[in-house]
Amino acid sequence: MPVDLLAFPLVGGRLALNFVGTLGKRTTERFERMRTPEDLAHWVELAGLGSVSTTAEDLMNARAVREALYSLTLAALNRGPLRQADINLVNGWAARATPAPALATGVGQADGVRANALQRQDPEPSASGVLAVVARDGIELLSGPEVEAIRECEDPACTLLFVDSSRGRRRRWCSMNSCGARAKMRTLRDR
């Protein structure tokens, strides 16, 4: 079965790392998964952040946040320089407002729910709000204990990052179903 290179791999274990993974194979055949504003909206939905309308400007901003998070992650892994411009960009997006949930009263009594029961109402997210959430997740990840568990897939053609939450912290691939399976097949062929 051929691999869909444009599919969004959600294997990072954290929202920020999944977002960074929207640019594939960074060191070889770089390919952009977020080619259009609609692709960005599709990623937002797949990531479980709701449904948003996006523009070309939102796409440009998303790519900037993504690259700043990638650069900061490499710096945290001692594999690249720490740039103040990246810190400022991520901090700036993290400081933006996000839609807040609200309480609303239930209407009528149905299925055993009291007439005056409270219900949660979640407002529609905006592209700007989603980028704020992604930036905040990046800050939490890069300044917290999980930073020590960030790994890059060992497949030489793959550059996906993930949080290794395996027992013993010995996970080698972004996904056993793709990169791990290919590595095992190569090992078998070499024998």
UniProtKB/TrEMBL annotation:
Entry-linked SUPFAM superfamilies: Jann2411-like (SSF160904)
Record domain Zinc finger CGNR: where: 150-191
Top-level lineage group: Bacteria
Gene3D superfamilies: Jann2411-like domain (1.10.3300.10)
Protein name: CGNR zinc finger domain-containing protein
The organism of origin for this protein: Kribbella ginsengisoli
